[in-house]
Amino acid sequence: WGDLRTAFARPVHSIVALLGDRALSFVFGDTRSGRHTFGHRFMRPGKIRLTDSEGYLDALAEAYVLADMEQRRAVMQDRMKRAVGQAGGHILEDAGLVETNTNLVEYPEVVLGRFGEKFLELPREVLVTAMREHQRYFAVVDGQNEIMPYFIAVNNTRARDMRVVAAGHERVLKARLEDARFFYHTDLNVSPDQRIESLKSVVFQAELGSVYDKALRIRKQGAILCRDLGIGKDVPARVDRAAMLCKTDLVSHVVIEFPKLQGTMGRIYAQTANEPEAVANAIEQHYRPAYSGGPLPATITGAILSIADKIDTICGCYYVGLVPTGASDPYALRRQAIGIIQTALDRELEFSLAGIIHAGMEMFGLSGRDLDDKAEAVFAFMQSRMAYLIEDSGIPRDLAAAAISVSADNICDVWRRAGALQRMKSAPDFDSLAVGFKRVVNIIRKADPAGTADSKVNPDLFGDPAETALHEAALRAREGVLRHLKQKEIDAAFTEIGGLKPQVDAFFDTVLVMAEDPALRKNRLALLKQISDLFDRLADFSRIST
Hints:
Helix content: 55-70%
Number of domains: 4
Strand order of the largest sheet: 8-10-11-9
Structural class: alpha+beta
């Protein structure tokens, strides 16, 4: 072992440094650079002297090292295609596995192997995972995309007899599949309710109880969501059952061996136990999205279960202080929050975000100020994720802030308002309109920072026609805005507000808001507060850059 302090990802055996045909000399660690490199360790061992930099790739290729990654991938895929043709099938598409194997070898050699047909009784996902995760083998499928009893293995060395190599791979895979088959059949002997009971002995998090406790909380959140969404009929019962089953595959032998199959095996075991198909699918879907840009829950039951699970995890982590930082997010709370938002948008689920956060915190026994503080922290965290996603969709940061800051309780509504605000901003007179609206908001906030001022207007105190015109226009606009909001016609609601611009401009041109007469001043502030309150139903115009 070296005792050097120099760090590098791999052991450094040689360094080639050429500028044209000239060798550059320097030392890295205890290795001096030069014009010598090495070929394939077994197929062409020994030094290779390079005369110039242009000959580098060709010289290595002659020594059975394909240094160019694209060339290596192309050669590997071409050889895989030829090998799988012998079985009359084709490779099950797996871009990630292609990338992995490309980076595991220097000179790809491919063999076709076969396994016993008895293993085809295993679920497709188990077969593919057993081949992929442990052995980096490619599964083979027929024209109907059904798994065939073959596999493709990629080697880094060409042997004298590749049939011997294939036989070695077959022996290794057979042992893996025998284990998987044993685990699967053992799991089938356990009923869903027995697995539910087993969750009591599995710790979710030291301060948050067992996975069984979590399942109970998911169940409660699912019921709350169903109620808020006005979903009746069979869905609440399916959500209830799926909530209790969604984590049970964590105690199965197959998932313990292949953790990536969590959710998938839950669906399979639920199906074999004759649970309703909607319940089985929801169990698999509640983990979605599993990664950025991954598929979202495809059913309403799966969507509700997914949101209930994720909000419970977020609330629980905030309850015990496991808050994401710039350097750490061990429970992937950012991804969980984004999953909630994307699922709500995808399924157009309109529920109270503050409501489920409050309920989530109550489930941990919080009340009073403690509950409010924790719930507010989670809500602020969710707002930050909304802002991130809105900006990521191409809407400027100031518009995202304007939409979120007035209300973020209904996720779908936030997106409708942010989108409408962006469309409104494209109008040629938007900047001048926003300036007047921002003035309204800023005056009210300065005069009434606590937001407790009365907005009741007395028309008898109007002394300028501009006051009357603005008041009448505001009443008409309010009626239109409320009507359009009820119909979710957000663009039309913004148009109603935009129609106030002439009256707002005229008001500021001729009326002194902060009049010496206290009664006039209070009445004019009340009029502006009516306008400001109307704005607050849509956006905080003071946040918009002009």
